[in-house]
Design brief:
- The termini are far apart.
- By secondary structure, this protein is mostly beta strands.
- A hairpin with a 4-residue loop joins β7 and β8.
- The strands form 2 sheets. Strands 2, 4, 5, 6, 9, 10 and 11 form a 7-stranded mixed β-sheet that branches. The chain has a 4-stranded antiparallel β-sheet with strand order 1-3-8-7, with no helix packed on it.
- It has no helices and 11 strands.
Length: 124
């Protein structure tokens, strides 16, 4: 079974930036939808950004214009650039990989490989 390892989380003030990375091992990501989810205390895990195998990307409305997802298939790494961070962005951020050749579905049930998460804390 492959693994995903996130890095780049931390504590920043509102308006700051962070760049998350997710390194895959044991399999290729080029043929999988890759995604970032987040979960704040007391909340359900929600999809933040999605990167499809055809190069298309999407982000949830609450981070539109602030977050950008990208991938480097050769390095087997997924990224999430987060700018203009807000306190409500505080959460544990998880990287996830979908099933081979599956469409990018914006629900946790579509993802079979998960990282352990990285904490992002934004103070006001």
């Amino acid at each position: 079974q492959g693994q995903l390892v996130e890095s780049g989380g931390g504590s920043v003030q509102a308006g700051g930036s962070l760049r998350l990375s997710c390194a895959a091992s044991g399999y290729t990501i080029s043929r999988r939808c890759m995604a970032w989810f987040r979960q704040a205390p007391g909340n359900e895990r929600e999809g933040v950004a999605f990167s499809d195998t055809n190069g298309s990307t999407s982000v949830t409305d609450s981070v539109q214009g602030r977050f950008t997802i990208s991938r480097d298939n050769a390095k087997k790494t997924l990224y999430l650039q987060m700018n203009s961070l807000k306190p409500e962005d505080t959460a544990v951020y998880y990287c996830a990989a979908g099933r081979l050749y599956d469409d990018c579905i914006h629900h946790t049930s579509a993802y079979t490989i998960w990282g352990r998460g990285t904490q992002v804390t934004v103070s006001s």
